[in-house]
Amino acid sequence: MRFHRHPRLLAPFLLVPLMAGCFASGGGDDSGAGGGKGGGGDGARLRVALAFPPAENLSPYGADATLLSRLGVTEGLTALDANGSAAPALAESWRRDGEKTWEFTLRDATFQDGGEVTPAAVAESLAHATDAEPAPAALAGVDLRAEASGDRVVRITTAEPDPVLPLRLSSPSLAILSKGAYGKGSRVDPVGHATGPFELTDVNGATSASLDRFDDYWGGRAQASGIDARFIADGTARANALRTGELDIAEAVPVAQAASLDKKTRRDTATTRTTSLLLNASSGTFEDAGLRAAARGALDTSVFAEDVYEGYADPAAGVYGPAVTWAEGKRTPPVGRAAAKKAGGATVQLATYDNRPELPEVAQVVKQQLEKAGFTVKLTVREYSRLEGDALDGKFDAFVLARNTLLDTGNPVAVLASDYTCDGGFNIAQLCDKDVDRAVADAEKIADTAKRQDAAMAAEARILGSDAVVPLVHQRIITGVADSVQGVILDPYERTLVGTGTRR
Predict the structure, then answer these.
(1) Can you tell me the distance from the alpha carbon of 40 to that of 198, in angstroms, rounded to the nearest whole number?
(2) Segment 438-463, tens digit of pLDDT
(3) Is 211 in contact with 71 (CB distance < 8 Å)?
């Protein structure tokens, strides 16, 4: 079996000011002092704290892609609308030309370095993405070629029919950058080379970044003159900084800190994020399907939503939670589960990360429940960037993961292919099961939306039947927003946070 290591933040972020109409509230006049290149004194700078620092030098092809999109720096040919369907972004329209080719008509847009967004520039940017190692999750298993076709059209051809290509191209990892972003080797530099309403002007390692308004943005001039972003992994510190007036927006406020914020400053949003226990199905204790079944049977998942998440979550139902509104009515029972064996003191190396403060508490509860069932459990907790490589290399028996099931493409099948198939790029569970692979492959071929959803749920039933993943809770994300701020984008897909209408 073969696993491709693909770094990806198990968490939040991304793009499209276009979506402000779907998720944001706003309107009214600007206030405050200006600043930055696009300042002009007519819009205060926003002070924003993100939970995850850059892990890959701001490369759009891995963990940092959603960081860039959440700050309004990057965008792709398409976006996701409120219903999870493909919506126009840099492409104003598209059509299918045969089974394997799509044509995307570009809107009139400009790169932040002054160049025009042309079909040739788009084709070159997508070519760099397809050549990236490891490949972006959105391109897992996809052979894609883009070429200019006239003044405004990009033709994209895939080796196999891809009925969800417009959804795929909404991925933050397929952001369109200008020629200047690509240097020698694999380095990609988005600073000053993207198309969004805010332009990165300075990055201070993993500590902070400065962004100025991009005045020539195709979607209209942003109301804020810029953004001062801080990367604060400690959730309590983020909440404290918001409470003391140092911040305007703090993402991912820990549930333990929610009560400390004024009710008007905390916004909770149902998301497509599921917190699960992943069990290593290829080596160690849980290579034995009977012991995986024993672990699954040992867990009382009812305690997580109310106790650990203090009501800011929903009880686990499957890979997809209630924010994926169509899933519940199509869910079928798990298929192919093994009979549970006795734990017999088997040792379990359990790990999680503390960027999301609830996860260590979740892991402690999991540890206690497994120990009660007869397992011997050793728990490791680290900051995510110091844990990801070992997790993807299968060095733990079990891993508590918060995963946005629609983040990479908006396609419900994509997370199944990425996380649970033999060649999946984010297969922390190390699952390689021919029946699962077949079910996922069948779902990927279906163009009709309803039938594709049915097939996704059939694949979910196979995956849950393997007991390589035990869903624990479906998360609601808490965003801290100062009273003076309007237009924050509360996105269930966690791709956007600030846009043209975000201001104070």
Answers:
(1) 15
(2) 999 999 888 787 898 999 999 999 99
(3) yes
